[in-house]
Structures are given as C-alpha cells and as structure tokens.
Amino acid sequence: MNTHIEGSPSFAYIQVDLEPGESVIAESNAMASMAGDIDLDTKFNGGFMRGLLRKFLGGESLFVNHFTNNQAEARRITLVQPNPGDIHELELNGDSFCLQPGAYICSSPDVELGLQWAGLRSGISREGFFRLKLSGHGTVWYGAYGGMITRQIDGEYIVDTSHLVGYEPQINLKLQLAGGLFSSFFGGEGLVTRVEGKGKIVIQTRSLSGLRDYMNPRI
Amino acid sequence: MFRQVRKIMSRAMKDEQGEYQAGAFHEMFARGRASGRLRLTREGVAFSNDQGSVLLPMSGLKVELGGASDRLVFFKSAAEPAWSVYTSDRDILKDPSLEISLADRQAISKTRSLAKLAWVAAVGLVLAAGLVTLLLWSQRALLSGWLASKIPAEQEAKLGELIAEQFAGSKRVLSEDEDLAGDWGAMLAPLLEGVDGNRYDYDIVLIEDSVPNAFALPGGKIFVHSGLLLQAERPEEVLGVVAHEIAHVNLQHGTRAVLETVTLVVVVQALIGDFSGVIALAAEGGVALLTKAHSRDAEREADEVGWGYMMKAGLDPAAMISLFEKLGELQEVHEGLEDAIAWISTHPTTDERVATLEGKRDALTEEYAPLVFDFESFLTRVRGVLLNPEDDESPTENREESDEHTH
Amino acid sequence: MEVELMHQPGNSAARMIIPAGETVTAEAGAMISMSSDVQIETTTHKRGKGGVMKALRRMLSGESMFLNHFTPGANGGEVIVAATLAGDMMVYDLDDEELVVQSGSFVACEEQLDVDMNWQGFKSLLSGESVFWLRIRGTGKVVLSSFGAIYQLSVDSEQIVDTGHIVAFNETLDFTISKAGKSWLQSILGGEGFVCRFNGRGTVWCQSHNASSFGRNLGPMLKPR
Fold first, then answer.
1. β-bridge mates for residue C151, sequence order
2. What is the DSSP letter of C157?
3. A neighbours by CB contacts (3+ pairs under 8 Å)
4. What's CA A176's distance to the chain center, in Å?
5. Are residues B145 and B129 in the same domain?
C-alpha cells in the first residue's frame, strides 16, 4: 500500500494506492473517488451486534467499508474526512491508541477496532460513551477539525473536552467541571478533561462546539 | 419558441459547406484531445484542425451517442482505431450525407427514448415519494409503535446484553456478590412477580457506582447504581425507581423515540418482513436512549405504569415521590454536584410530575404495609462489600470513570 | 488573460491579469481587489447574450443572479477573485469544448465563454446532491472554486466518484449515477449512497471535502431557527 497525505493542513485527504490483493478499511462516507474496479464490501463493524453497539454508543458508524483491489495492477482510492483540517498517520506495532468519536478515517486491515468505555459523564458531555481503541500491527489514519498538536504529557494536564482527538490508552481521563453547575448541566459545557499519566495526547486547534457557539447567537 | 431559436442557432453552426464544430481524441494532441471542424463527404466523416486531419470512411462507420447525458455524437472507425471524433451538434444525425447503419440508428433512438422515459418515470417517482413521505410523516407515532413491536424481543435482549457487557464490564457487580445476591433477589421478587408475563425477562443488576442513577437497556436489563441505593431510606423507594424503569422498557419508549425517525426505505423493508433496517435504525439513534431524557409524555406514562406495578405488587407507590425529591435535592448539595448531573440530565423531575404523583397518592384508598425486608442491614452489608476490594480486581489502568469517587 | 493561483488549497484566491481590450466576467461578490482603472459593469446576463431567464437559471444553480464584467484600462489591469467558502481554486483552459461544473463552483471566466445552467436530469436528483450543474462552453479560461482541496482524476478506465466530491468534468465523459457497493442496502447503510461512475475519456476534478458533509456534522449542533 502506497499512501500519501495531501492538502495538509487545511483540507487534508489521503491518496491510497492499493497493490493487487490489498485492502483498506474506511469509515462510511470516507471514499471520495476510486477506480471503478475496486471492490467495496460493507461489513458490520466487527460483527453485527458489535457494530450495533459501536453505532449505539460510540458515535461511529454502524458499518465499515472494506475496499479491496482484486485486479492485477495497482489501483487508487482517495479517502477523505467531513471536517476541514489535518490528517495524521500512526503506525501501531502491537500497541494501542484511543480516538474520539469521529476522528477515525481509515486503517490497514490488521488493525483491530475496539471500544473502550469512557464513562457516563463523557456521554453526557456529548462526546460519546465510548472511545475507539485501535490496536494491533498496522497503520491508522485519523483527522481533526483544524490543525493538530501532539503533546507528551507526564503528570497532569487539562484539555478542553471538545478539542481532544486522541490519546494513548494508559492515560487516564477525568471529566470535571470547569465552571458552575448551570454551565455544566445545561449542555455539557464547562466540562474539561483532566488527563493524567505518561504518554502522548493529540489535540485539535479548532472545535465544532466552538463554531457552534459562535454561530448560534447569530442565527 | 426557444426550440426554434435553438434550431436557428445550430444551423448557423453548420456552415454552408456542411461543416460542424467538433472535437477529437488522438495521442498527438497535447491534452489527448483537441477541437476542430468536421465535414461530411461522400467518402466519410472528415475531421481537421491545425494539427492534423483524418477521414473516417463511411463504410463500417460507427455512430453512437455518448458523453455527459448522451449529448454528444461519437464517430469511430475500425480503419482509424487511434481516432475518436465527436460533435455536440445533434443535427448531424439528420444530415442526409451521413449514412448511419440500421443497428446504430436503432441504438440511437433507443438511447433517446430511454432518456425520455427516465424523465417521466423520475417525475412520477418524485411525486409519489413526496406523497408517501407526507403520509408516513403524519402517522409516524403510530408507525414507530408498530415497528418497535416488530423487533424480536431476543434481538433487543441481545443488544442490551452487549451494551451491558461493555458498560458494566469495568464495574463491580454487587448483586452477584454471594453476601448480597440472595437479599437483592428477595427485595425485588414481589415487584417482579407483578410484572411477570411481559415480553421481556427482567434482570436487575446492582453495580458499584457512587453516582446515583438507574437505567434500563433494551431487552430488560436494568442497572441500579449503588449510589442510588445508598440514598434510599426504605426498599420501596428503590423499587419505585425500578418499577419506573421497567415501565420505560415495557412501553418501548426508547426504541420508539428512535424509530420516529423512520425512513421510507426502512418501512418498505419492514413491510416485506426484513427488519435489519429497523434494527440498524435503532442503532443509529441509539445514543439518544441513554443520553437524552424521555419526552414528557413518556415520563408521565412511565410514572403511571410504574405506579401501577407497585400497586399490583402490594408495595407503597408513594415511595417513588420521596426518592425523586431526594435526588432533586442533590442539586443544592455541593458535594453531590457532579453526581446530580447524571441523574438529572437523564431523568428530569419536574414539579408537574411530582404534583401528579402526589395527586395519585392522595387518591390512594389502600394502606400499604411496608415490605418485610431488613433494609438497614442490607445497606450496611453493601457498604461493607464496597469497602473491601475484590480479590480478582483488575489493574487500575483499566478503570476510568468509575474510580473517581472515593468511598 | 493570465491567471495566478495563490494560497492553495486552504485559502485560495486567483489573480487575473487582463490585457487591454479583454473583458472578464465574474460572479457578483467574487472580486476582492482590482486595479484602479478597471471598469465594472453589472448585468444579469453575459454581455450581449441571454437575458433574465438565463439569470434566473443561474440563480437556481446556486450562482448569483448578477454578473460583473471587468474591463481594464488601456494598459491592462488585474482583478483578484476568491470564493465565499474557504478552499481551493483551479483554472481550466477550454478549447472549443464544454465543461460541466458543479453549481456554486463558478467564479470567473473570459467573457466570450457561455455559462448556462443545466438540469442534469433526475439522475442527479436521486444522488441527493445538487441537481443543477453549470455548463461552460467555448474557448477561453474559466476559474472555479471548491470547498476542500482539488485533485485531478484522469479517466482511462472506469472511475467512481462520490457525487458530492465532483467539482467539474469534461463533457466527453459518460457518467451514470449508481450504487457504490454490491447491493442497494449496502450502499445506503455503508454511507456511500450514490456515486458517479465515469467512463470514456476525459478528466474529473474532485474536491477533498464537501460542504454538505461538514454541514451535517455541524448542523445538528446549531440551534433551530
């Protein structure tokens, strides 16, 4: 598989050249264009029931698409994300990485897509009850709204909840109130994420809730 | 009138010499394609521009419609395989100098009539779809009820189990603790007998979570947090909450709310007997089942029906009121701040509901004997179990939210 | 005219250098700056052609009803244009041919080009994306914009493009709207829905993002009007 991220950092997208027999797994709606003879198989994400669960509580799609090149020569497929922003590529060597709902774009077939419970309050703050946990050996591509900043943390760090994109699984997340009761209760606002541990976190420079808050009073 | 104008203009494009504006594909051209002029002669179709020219002989000439919306007329010849010539002027088809084989003519007229047919069919489809959608939209409350009842109970149960696995996976299940299991079951028994015979098998699970909350999953699994249990003063208060949750599940409130967003495709499938679409849809909107509060009507219904279950079980239904009020008060207590959020955002208790329940309490004719159950000692034992760590406790990295509240 | 594209792909603008004697037509509102001696004429139609009907059709396709015609002074001049949504831009040099363009993408063109709206038929309706596509015909340069980065796809063998990601394509391409996967259910549930299959010879210009997908993410978060 030959891949190249283009259009970075404002409108990043991925050009993937699949060798004969190769596949790539992608979120539904991630395909912008592809050669006519690439086979598309829509599978329930990790089995029917598991797929329902992912959809139910993870905010991810029920189905993932398996794009396979069953021809004798290389074929190109272009994969995209709905939000304008950057895309990062991550190599997994038996380790794992957690992603916020919506950040996942595509991955190589050996990467396992699993769910990690993120706590009730995470769901109430509308970030989704589950985080996507990717593990195994392979490559994952994830994206964000805006640019992305990677931080190595050791100890405690505070992140605005709607700006968190991904983090290593050994890092603990705690949601807590930033402000008073009203701001927290009435919309999950005022909730910040306290991250603690040692490892890598990825933050996006913009947030949809930020845009929403800008636009709502003007509508 | 416009059609006449168009005809005049296209005739202007075809010069007096019988030339047409045209384009051609050949690798000699910089972009693989270039524009030029096309002339019909006795020998065939002649294309030329400043870079080159070609003659496609009339015998063996292939004429077909192509390009976007089949608007272009393409000419191909086996004698000149490297060339492909086309024009956008469809009048060329009427030009008497052009000999079109019968097969090609048939293909062309087929393309054209198919296009017309598609137009008519599409208009009809759009109108029909609009009408049906309107009809369904007006009946969606009824529809969602019917669709919800069609999802096999086993499917709902399976889904609930899977969620339970993930949700409770990291939490300690207190109701399975050998010290507590017997009493937990005994406490619930009278209520569960009252709701027997329904579509679902109810499984009420007590889990360790200091956030006071209780909720039901599709298919009959209901979770009660230890935080809620410890706020209660008598067992009827807990049972009242459980009765309310059972009512939500039995009435399929969550599932129905989700199905109100039913789409045409899914309905058609369901009518044929294929419910995978319905299930997928339920999954689609599934987040709502746990995060959003039910509608006011649904809450009122659940209060009513839950109240009925309590009465049928011979338990004092007024206990529902006292616990709701206690949880409502949590808002004002500072330490309980964070805990309140969970309960309140999923179960908003309005003054109206409490008032309705109080009205029902005042209308009660029976006196209810308290449940024979040593609640205090049960709570003490629960607290004891909570203080003792489990033997096979999983390492702390795997515990996320559940670890925040120290006991 | 010469066109110089700047700040691609995120915040593109096009600097059009117009020699004396030529006129450039642009969408109303596209101009962000220009030389001081450039004359503007605003009409509802291409200079000398069309009329209100054409203007209305353009409006239906998402373009503005009004067009601005920029004519520089005796020494030539420049006009810098950009599109409303942040994104990429491209220039295409038409050679007596027709380019099919998604509605909303048109920014500017040399005035001799004909810009007309066309209903691509109900095939487009089914796809759920914009039904109206612009047809730009003639010889000359046209400047288009997109939401997202623009990339080119050469069609030698069949290419599939999600309908929302098409910016423009040559008229010589056959296209059919069809399902992406092996079955209809798969297509709809898989989220790919309807796609365009392109065959024949030509180029499709694609965009990496589309406003409706982004809008679908943002929309539910906005309060109802």
1. C206
2. S
3. B, C
4. 23
5. no
C32 at B interface, C-beta within 8 A: no
Tell me: the pLDDT tens digits for B100-149?
888 888 888 888 888 778 777 767 776 776 677 677 666 666 766 776 77
pLDDT tens column, A44-103 = 655 544 555 555 444 455 567 889 999 999 999 999 998 889 999 999 999 999 988 778
pLDDT tens, position by position, B204-229: 989 888 777 787 777 788 888 888 88
C189 closest CB neighbour out of A37, A63, A84: A63
pTM over 0.80? The answer is no
The fraction of chain A above a pLDDT of 90, given in percent, is 33
Q: Which residue in chain B is spatially nearest to C188 when comparing CA positions?
A: B265
Q: Which CATH number do you get for residue C185?
A: 3.60.160.10
Q: What is the pLDDT of residue B356?
A: 84
Name the nearest CA neighbour of B224 among B242, B200, B236.
B242
Clarify whether residues B277 and B322 are in a common domain: yes
User: B338 and B358, same structural domain?
Assistant: yes
Inter-chain CB proximity C122 and B66 less than 8 Å: no
> Out of A33, A61, A65, whose CB is closest to C206?
A33
Give CA torsion, residues C190, C192, C193, C198, to 10 deg: -140
Tell me which residue of A143, A134, A140, A154 sits closest to A201, measured CA to CA. Answer: A154
What distance separates the 2 farthest-apart alpha carbons in chain A?
62
> What is residue C163's DSSP assignment?
G
Check if the beta carbon of residue C81 is closer than 8 Å to that of residue C26. Answer: yes
Angstrom distance (rounded) from CA A3 to CA A14: 7
Closest-CA residue in chain C for B86? C172
Distance from chain centroid for Cα C20: 26
DSSP of A124-164: HTTS-SEEEEEEEEEEEEEE-SB-EEEEEEEEEEEEEGGGE
Tell me the CA distances in angstroms from C116 to C26, C101, C179, one per residue in order: 14, 10, 29
For residue A195, the enclosing domain spans 2-218
In which residue are the tokens 């423009």 written?
Answer: C168
Query: Degrees (nearest 5) of the Cα angle B106, B111, B115?
Result: 145
List, in order, residues 6 or more apart from C127 with CB less than 8 Å away: C163, C177, C193, C194, C196
- Count up the domains in chain B and report the number: 3
Identify the residue among C209, C218, C225 best suited for mutation to test binding to A, counting A beta carbons within 10 A and taking the highest.
Answer: C209
Domain of C45, in residue numbers: 2-221
Shared domain check, B94 and B14: yes
CATH number, residue B64: 2.30.29.30
Instruction: Give C27's strand partners.
Output: C67
B258 shares its domain with B324: yes
Q: Are residues B155 and B279 in the same domain?
A: yes
B171 and B123 in a common domain: no
B291, B206: one domain: yes
AA identity, residue A140:
V
Strands of the sheet with B203-207, listed across from one edge = B203-207, B221-225, B214-216
The CATH number of the domain holding residue A209 is: 3.60.160.10
- CB spacing of B159 vs A173 below 8 angstroms: no
Relative orientation angle of helices B319-329 and B337-346, to the nearest 10 degrees: 130
pLDDT tens-digit series, residues A121-145? 555 455 555 678 888 999 999 999 8
Total domains present in chain C: 1
Total domain count, chain A: 1
Q: What proportions of chain A, in percent to the nearest 5, are helix, strand and coil?
A: 15, 55, 30
Q: Which residues, listed in sequence order, are joined to residue C166 by a DSSP beta bridge? A: C206
Q: What number of CA atoms fall less than 13 Å from residue A25's CA on the CB side?
A: 19
Q: In this predicted complex, what is the ipTM?
A: 0.76
Distance of residue B162 Cα from the nearest chain C Cα, in angstroms: 21
| Domain enclosing residue B172, as ranges | 140-403
